[in-house]
Amino acid sequence: MTEPDASGTPRVLGATVDDETRCVHYRTELDIVAIRFACCGEYYPCHACHEEAADHPAEQWPLSERGREAVLCGVCRAELTIDAYLVVDACPVCASRFNERCRLHTHLYFETERGAAAAALATAPTRSVASEGSTAPRT
Ligand SMILES: [Zn+2]
Ligand SMILES: [Zn+2]
Ligand SMILES: [Zn+2]
Questions:
Q1: 104 phi/psi in degrees, rounded to 5
Q2: I want to staple 69 with a disulfide (CB 3.0 to 4.6 A). Which of 27, 79, 105, 133 is the partner?
Q3: Rounded Cα distance, 43 and 12, in Å
Q4: pTM of this structure
Q5: 52: alpha, beta or left, given left = phi > 0 and alpha = psi -120 to 50?
Q6: CA of 4 to the centre of ligand 1 (A)
Q7: How far is the CA of 68 from the centre of ligand 2 (A)?
């Protein structure tokens, strides 16, 4: 809900090497997305760019923020919500293919289901997950 810059497109920080958000770390044909980081609200091409250029540790978007626009297509400059990005292989606007290997790094940018479950367990160590649902199937 913030006002866009005069240019209309968000700036991308970090060690970019071209206008499609490739950076010194990830610069294949498919590396065309930048990620907005939850900690500072700025777009970086990758987690390593943030680590080098930002003066603070990266934070991940919580599951409750999956509706936020936090992924930028470097080709057409469309901003995708986290939810939208995680279910596509290519930009829904310009059809440019995304690097599927980015999936391996999802947890560096976005809190994952598994991460949330682990965090919940860590804060409630006495609760037994296995006791629920074992006796009464819902269907
Ligand atoms: Zn940051
Ligand atoms: Zn980078
Ligand atoms: Zn696009």
A1: -65, -25
A2: 79
A3: 5
A4: 0.77
A5: alpha
A6: 19
A7: 22
